[in-house]
Input
Amino acid sequence: MREFVGEIASNSQLRHRNVVQLLGYSRRKGELLVVYEFMSNGSLDKFLYDTSKPTTLSWSQRRNIIRGVASGLLYLHEEREQIVVHRDIKASNVLLDGEMTGKLGDFGLSRLYDHGGDLQNTHVVGTFGYIAPELTKTGRPTTSTDVFAFGVFILEVVCGRRPILQQESPDLHLVDWVWRSWRSGGIVEVADARLEGDYDPEEVKLILKIGLVCSHPSPAARPTTRQVMQLLDGDLSLPEIPKDGRGEEPKES
Output
């Protein structure tokens, strides 16, 4: 019931082309229903991981989905009277319409608060693999913890891999795997093999680096959501990513 009420409260006033629109809700005889606009292509994770899908997402589609979700997240974080922290950004919560436009959905875990305010500490929620490291210590969701999850999401879309690489022994986090590739000088090689090299390597490298910066373990080193949009649009220089460690805040290059 708490998640149901939270979803209605968070989503009833949201209007953005990259946020799934809530059309109505019902509570009847113990049954709770929320009704959203119809998204004919379903969730993004099906295209990334369902081998029965006849088509593979092209690089331009992936790039546009990443930018679209970033635009929706900017709206939630900075362009409303109240901030919405989503708290569960991942491929299965991004839905695709008939034109393959990516829209952020599932606001059951989201929270509202005023600009200049803070959310109180709460129990840690989200999906394993997307949870920012500071959340396990403070229990306090912020726009920065959303940015961390979005960084993991970027890597997930580009690489076509889940956040936890269970085929590795021991299980390896996708962020660490991409980070190792960056350190060895082969970051473009992590791009989804199903793309068959049909992409601009420099563009792939840039977006992967944005994913790494967003998923930096230090909140102070992550960009704001607006800076993420500026990075994706080429309006802001990418911070330098040192290859010898991730513990310090990167400096502008």
